[in-house]
Design goal:
Low-confidence stretches: none
Number of strands: 13
CATH superfamily of the largest domain: Diphthamide synthesis DPH1/DPH2 domain 3
Number of domains: 3
Order of helices and strands: HEHEEEHEHEHEHEEHEHEHEHEH
CATH topology of the largest domain: Rossmann fold
Shape: flat
CATH architecture of the largest domain: 3-Layer(aba) Sandwich
Number of helices: 11
Bound molecules: iron/sulfur cluster
Radius of gyration: 21 Å
Structural class: alpha/beta
Strand order of the largest sheet: 6-5-7-8-9
Length: about 325
């Protein structure tokens, strides 16, 4: 069960004296929007505006100013480098799952030095998992991330700096979370084994096969972009995905190779939003996972920033780098 902290939201709205509040939920939690609205309206009488746009991270924070007095953002932690706004409340929707020593039965034979990672929903389990591993005589390390990361050990789909900070001191990483999206960021970023433990089902799996399958697709994308004469360089207008400076660098680099580059700003990157542009390939400076995970949806090759270097011959496939958004 995920905790929506409705009483905390109500107290925060009353303390702030707000009369209108926007609610922003990721896709998987939008189903709870009406029920959460009912509770808040019945408890406080405020006007509620449910943000209907797709939301995939705190990188995508709704610009509530001029529309409501405040914003409640669900399902993600704040991104410290985006600053602190007292009128924005983050409800991280943490899980109440627990962990005990019996988990070692499903984890099997782990190496001696383990780095611990988690999504925000399971970040509270890191201390318990650390104690369990240490009780078996192993070393368990939890790395500090950069300013895009709110908590030690936390991983975003575009940033695994908390893993990088302990990479030289661990043999493998144990990731607490569900799904492939976040552990894949660690698996792409650190080039060490990443073992995933689902804290609910206690299923254990290694990310190597999934990572290698996606890397093969990325190799195919870079191969098919070789020979491209024109590139659309995509800049995202979302606050936490805007890499305008990097996009300008990309454009200069493409032009220095005698090729054509065009810059386009967009909010949502979809096959439809790219359909009109007559170019041979795209370079996506927004969320890197659009290219990494969804490339099959696009008619032309979509590259990340480091992949462009491979296409232009400025770096080798053997030096493949995961495109991370830094603070
Ligand atoms: S940029 Fe992409 S991976 Fe990073 S937080 Fe936003 S949605 Fe997640």
């Amino acid at each position: 069960m995920f905790d929506f902290q409705l009483d905390r939201i109500v107290a925060w709205i009353r303390d702030g004296g707000y009369s209108s509040v926007a609610l922003q939920l990721p896709e998987g939690l939008k189903i709870r929007a009406t029920e959460i609205s009912d509770f808040i309206i019945d408890s406080t009488g405020v006007d509620i505006l449910v943000v209907g746009y797709p939301c995939y991270g705190a990188c995508d924070l709704y610009d509530y100013k001029g529309k409501t007095d405040a914003l409640v953002h669900f399902g993600h932690s704040r991104i410290p480098s985006q600053g602190d706004d007292p009128n924005v409340l983050y409800i991280e929707s943490r899980s109440d799952a627990t962990m005990d020593a019996s988990v070692m039965d499903v984890l099997g034979d782990l190496p001696q030095r383990i780095g611990l990672l988690a999504t925000i929903q399971y970040i509270d389990l890191i201390p318990a998992m650390r104690s369990i591993l240490e009780s078996t005589g192993r070393t368990a390390l939890v790395g500090e991330g950069d300013r895009r990361i709110a908590y030690p050990g936390q991983v975003l789909g575009c940033n695994c700096s908390s893993a990088e900070s302990v990479i030289d001191d661990v043999d493998a990483f144990l990731f607490l979370g569900e799904g492939d999206f976040h552990p894949l960021a660690a698996a792409f970023g650190v080039k060490k084994d990443v073992i995933v433990l689902n804290p609910i089902t206690k299923e254990v799996r290694d990310m190597a096969e999934t990572r290698d399958r996606i890397l093969r697709k990325r190799f195919a994308a870079t191969q098919s972009a070789k020979g491209a004469q024109s590139f659309l360089v995509i800049v995202c207008s979302k606050v936490g995905q805007n890499r305008s400076a990097e996009a300008d660098g990309v454009i200069s680099k493409i032009r220095s190779h005698g090729l054509k580059a065009y810059k386009a700003v967009m909010e949502e990157i979809t096959p439809m939003s790219l359909m009109a542009y007559r170019v041979d390939a795209y370079v996506n400076t927004a969320c890197p996972r659009v290219a990494m995970d969804d490339s099959a949806r696009y008619e032309r090759p979509m590259l990340t920033i480091p992949e462009l270097d491979i296409v232009l011959g400025d770096s080798e496939w053997a030096d493949y780098r995961f495109d991370q958004i830094r603070p």
